[in-house]
Structures are given as C-alpha cells and as structure tokens.
Amino acid sequence: MDRLVIRGGNKLEGSVEVHGAKNAVLPQIAAALLSSEPLELSNVPDLSDVTSMVNVMQEFGVSASHLPGRVLRLDAGQARSADAPYEIVRRMRASMLVLGPLVARFGAARVSLPGGCAIGARPVDLHLKALAALGADVDVEGGYIIAKTPGHRLQGARIVLSSPSVGATETALMAATLARGETEIINAARDPEVCDLALCLTAMGARIEGAGTHRVVVSGVDNLHRARHELIADRIEAGTYAIAAAITGGHLELLNAHLEHMATVGAALEQAGVQIWPTDRGLMISRDEPLRAVDIVTEPYPGFPTDLQAQFMALMAVTPGASMLRETVFEGRFMHVPELARLGANISLQGTTAFVRGVEQLRGAEVMATDLRASVGLVLAGLVAEGETVIHRIYHLDRGYEALDRKLIQCGADIRRVAA
Ligand SMILES: CC(=O)N[C@H]1[C@@H](OP(=O)(O)OP(=O)(O)OC[C@H]2O[C@@H](n3ccc(=O)[nH]c3=O)[C@H](O)[C@@H]2O)O[C@H](CO)[C@@H](O)[C@@H]1O
Ligand SMILES: C=C(OP(=O)(O)O)C(=O)O
C-alpha cells in the first residue's frame, strides 16, 4: 500500500485548483439511472470514488465514457435493475444512492445494507422511510434492502425527514422526479450538493422547487431526458487547502472556490486569525498573524461541516490556547485523535467533544489513515510537524482528493508518495 512521507516546515504559497465536488458527482452519477437518455457531467474530478461509482453503474448495464475536458458521459438506455452487492456498497456508502433511481425507473431494487464505518453507525432508515412514503414496499432481508413498487410507479407524498440527512434528501429527490403527482420533502438537507443535484435533475426535465431550503417540492414527470450539467467546486477540498494555508502561515489562492458555500468555515478561520477574500478566480487565503483558538460545533449545512472537523482539529492542535470541537453529525468521527497524539498533539476526548490544547511544535511520526478526512487531517499536521511524518493507508485520500500530493508540492510542500 502506498504511503506519504512529509517533511514539515514549509509555508504554502501559490495557487491550487479546486476540482468538482465528490459529494455532488456521486449522486449525479446515480441520477443517470433515471433516464433512458444520456447524461453528461462536466468538471468531474479524478477520484477513486468516481471510478467505484461508475463501476456500480456498470452492474446495471449503464455505459460510461470519459470525454475530453473532464466530461463523464453516462448512458442508461440499456440499463436494468440488478443487485448492488455488499462487496461494493460496503466500500463506498454513496453506492446506496442507486436505490431511489432504480425503484423509480424500474419498479424494483435490491441493494446491500452498507453497514457501519469508521466514522459512525450511519443507518439508512431515513432513505427507506422516504421510499416507503412514496409507496414502495421496502423490506430488509439477508442484509439486503429490497424495494418494489406496486404498479411500477411511485406515488407523490409528503416526506418528513426527522433530521436533514443529505443522502436521504437525495434519495427522496431522485425517486420523486418520476413519481405520479407532487412530493413535498420537509426538513430537507440544504447543502450546495443537494442544490446541484436538483439543478442536474432539472436539466434532465425534472420539476423541482425550493432546493436549498427546508421544503423541497417535486412535481413528478413521466420521463427524464438527455442533459448536460457542470458540477460545483468541492467546498470541502477548498476548505482543506484553506486550512493548509492557515496551518503553515502561507498564502494560497483557491481557484474556483466559492465563499458562499463555506461561510461558516470562513468565519471560523477568520476568528482563528486567517484572512480570506474573494478574487476573480476564487478565494485568497492568507495567514500572517499568530493563530487564535476557536471552538466549533459540526452541524448540518450551513453549519460547520463534519467533513472539515479533522482538518480544523489539526489546525487547533498547533494553535496557542484551548479549543473545543463538538461533533454532532457522526458520533464516531474521532479516529484521527490518537493518530494526531502520535505527532505530539494534546487532545482529550469526552463523548463527542474533543478538547484541544495547542502545542508549540508537533513532531513527525508514523501514523495510520483511517478514513478520508482523518487522513487529510494527518497530512495537514504533517505539513507543520518537525521532521518526517509517514502516513500509511493513503488509499483513503484518493477517494476524495484529486492529486493531493502534486497540488501540495506545487505550493512548496515537501511531500512524496512512496509506492509499497
Ligand atoms: C456522499 C456524500 O454526500 N457524503 C456526505 C453525506 O453523507 P450522508 O448522506 O451519509 O450523511 P447524512 O446527512 O445522511 O448523515 C447525517 C446523520 O444522519 C444519520 N442518518 C442518515 C441517514 C439515515 O437514514 N439515518 C440516519 O440516522 C447519519 O448516521 C448521520 O449521523 O453527508 C455527510 C454530512 O454532511 C457528509 O459527511 C458526507 O461526506
Ligand atoms: C464521509 C464522507 O464521505 P462518504 O459519505 O462518501 O463516506 C466524506 O466525504 O468525508
């Protein structure tokens, strides 16, 4: 397995290109199943999760081709419903997102339950309730979700989500596009990636109002048609590089990044002593003054994103003073804490709150990546640790960061990937 070797101490300077959002592209690949005509997505990032999702689609007979200019063309004209097996779904939870489109278009789906993962139990009850509300018969048998639509067509309904789950909102949204009549999704997730999915579905002919608010209304149509849609930039990738600039006391321009998608993150960074301003090409991040300790609480969008908690913890680990990081989205998302401690961080965990006391200097060590964001949190810590930090199991990083090592090297980091 590849590992990353980082020598800390270099300030990052220059510009970084922020690519299309992982959490936007994955549901939109699944959305291609809703139509017998092709869907072309542009600004598609080069990530192993994209490859995995395309492989999932091929299980259903969807043909996929990469065209010049980061375009992914998906054609579900010959698609059929088939099993989404445990082997696939367990490795990438987002493959669950095929459930809604399969039931909506083919009237039947059999998708493995994903199981828990390194960041929490992650149940899928809200996805299942949403489909049941739309009239599907949903059962769980032998570890598989089996959903069928009597009469082959879902029926519009009022879906009240007990919490604003991103995935359940996306399942409901996609399924409702082909349902008979009107669907109201109450307490919907408001994330930019949900809005981007709604835009993609609208380009395919869906009728959706209120995306980005708590109440989304979908008027079902008989068919969706061919479309082309450009994905939004990845606000989590942008936030990660913003923290890289902050932790090293550097200056980075984040090309394509949008401040309006990361207002809470921007506010927390400004409180920590980081300057942020929009440019013609994206966002400028600059840190010249000493860091200041900031408390954060992760929350559904527009709150502070859980997907940036590990990175912010790495920042606070080298910030003078004490900070408190409370995780309210994924109860188990603290696997990076013992690994940061190996680098000399002073962090204690009480339930779902991490108490961080900044240390003057982290020191390089061997550490283990456990999940995508925990891994990148370790990379950020490695950028300022004295000596050499070796990060094992970096395949997690390739799930969600395109060319992380190359982008960091371009800005002056001393980092190399060593093949096993
Ligand atoms: C591919 C993708 O877009 N992944 C993102 C998506 O994950 P994902 O869509 O899985 O996250 P959710 O918003 O659904 O999960 C939020 C919370 O709701 C709980 N829950 C969710 C569904 C359900 O049926 N029952 C239930 O209890 C989860 O366990 C979690 O505690 O949003 C998360 C929260 O912003 C991000 O961290 C992930 O990067
Ligand atoms: C948790 C994440 O992704 P996923 O939902 O795909 O596991 C993430 O992107 O940090």
Automatic annotation (TrEMBL):
GO molecular function terms listed in the Swiss-Prot or TrEMBL record: UDP-N-acetylglucosamine 1-carboxyvinyltransferase activity
Residues holding phosphoenolpyruvate: K22, N23
UniProt modified residues of type 2-(S-cysteinyl)pyruvic acid O-phosphothioketal: C117
E.C. no: 2.5.1.7
Cited Pfam families: EPSP_synthase
Highest rank taxon of the organism: Bacteria
GO cellular component labels: cytoplasm
Top-tier EC class: transferase
Subcellular location: Cytoplasm
InterPro entries: Enolpyruvate_Tfrase_dom, Enolpyruvate_Tfrase_sf, MurA_subfamily, RNA3'P_cycl/enolpyr_Trfase_a/b, UDP_GlcNAc_COvinyl_MurA
GO BP of this protein: cell division; cell wall organization; peptidoglycan biosynthetic process; regulation of cell shape; UDP-N-acetylgalactosamine biosynthetic process
Catalyzed reactions: phosphoenolpyruvate + UDP-N-acetyl-alpha-D-glucosamine = UDP-N-acetyl-3-O-(1-carboxyvinyl)-alpha-D-glucosamine + phosphate
Biological or metabolic pathway of the protein: Cell wall biogenesis; peptidoglycan biosynthesis
Keywords (A to Z) from UniProt: Cell cycle, Cell division, Cell shape, Cell wall biogenesis/degradation, Cytoplasm, Peptidoglycan synthesis, Pyruvate, Transferase
Binding site for UDP-N-acetyl-alpha-D-glucosamine: R93, R122, P123, V124, D125, L126, D307, V329
Catalytic site: C117
UniProt record similarity statement: Belongs to the EPSP synthase family. MurA subfamily.
Summary of the function given for this chain in its UniProt record: Cell wall formation. Adds enolpyruvyl to UDP-N-acetylglucosamine.
Protein name from the UniProt record: UDP-N-acetylglucosamine 1-carboxyvinyltransferase
Gene: murA
